Amino acid sequence: MPRAEVAGSYQELSEDVERVSENPAEERGGEMGVHEDASSVILPDSELGTSAPSLRFSKTCLKNVFSVILLFIYLLLMAVAVFLVYQTISDFREKLKHPVMSVSYKEVSLYDAPGIAFYPGKAQLLSCKHHYYDHIPPLVNPGQQGKIECSTWRINYTDPFTNQTMKYALVVQGPRDVKKKELVFLQFHLNETDQDFSAIDYLLFSSFQEFINSPEKAEFMKDCESSYSSWKFSGGFRTWVKMSLVKTKEEDGSETVEFKQETSVVNYIDQRTKPRSDQLFFVVFEWKDPFIQTVQDIITANPWNMIALLCGIFLALFKAADFAKLSVKWMIKIRKRHLKRRSQAMNHIS
User: Fold this and answer.
1) Which residues touch 208 (CB under 8 Å, ≥6 apart)?
2) How much is the average pLDDT of 274-298?
3) In terms of DSSP bridges, do strands 237-249 and 255-267 run parallel, antiparallel, or are they unpaired?
4) What pTM does this model have?
5) So where are the chain's domains?
6) pLDDT digits 0-9 by tens, 287-325
7) Cys bridge to 222: 160, 293, 302, 333, which one at CB 3.0-4.6 A?
8) DSSP secondary structure string, 290-323?
């Protein structure tokens, strides 16, 4: 019985060997099918590998676009900085050519007494007196010689414009105390005149004390007449002159003085009993206010401000240029790295 079972097993084994030897092609085909199935399973992994570089490429492209935008922005800022430099220099030159006039006021309680030079001609000074607080007492004996209570000086000098005509001037000390409203009241008398209109010329100069201290008073008066303007007051009226002082500083540092005047005229009512052919002149001098006006030209362009602004602009230019340089280098580096990775990926796929 055991011998029969062994013989049957041997027979089945021999049949299997013969079957395999008869179909070797089919078995190889099955193995190839297994390999093909394995390759078909690995293919999605390779596709995932190729999608990752494409994602990296899109990020790199976005970075490059952003860098280019930044580069253009900084180039625009550089252009604006260059324009600001040009505009700053142009404004500075324009302000140097056209200084601004500055006006300041200085309050004083006492002025330096001005000098008042009268050119009376044939007229005669009858009275001169200082009063305060704008109060002038009624006239006593108008047309008659009165008291002269002012500092006066009579001087003759040659006309500075013709150098031939001799001129006679009566110099009187002007008011000083502006707080007490000091004024000088003068009365002139003219007996007869061959002119159609009667008037007396006068001029104002800055300091009566300078005139007194001057050793050459004739030359001093010639200089005053050349430098200051002259005015007139008419007969038959009381002329009230309110003065204000203006000092002007020149570019060379010198200072000039000018008087501004406000004049009011009041008619004189002659109450003398007998009709007369003579002419009376009345004039009052007073300071308008306690402020001395100073005028000077000021250059508003500050060179230190311009230098600081230019330094800031040039620093921004250098920083922008440095950033642009680094941005270009970084873009070139990223581009080379991308090309290198792309070539490596192509070699790996191949």
Assistant:
1) 113, 114, 115, 151, 171, 173, 174
2) 86
3) antiparallel
4) 0.62
5) 61-95, 106-297
6) 999 999 988 877 777 777 777 777 777 777 777 777 777
7) 160
8) SEEEEEEEE----HHHHHHHHHHHHHHHHHHHHH
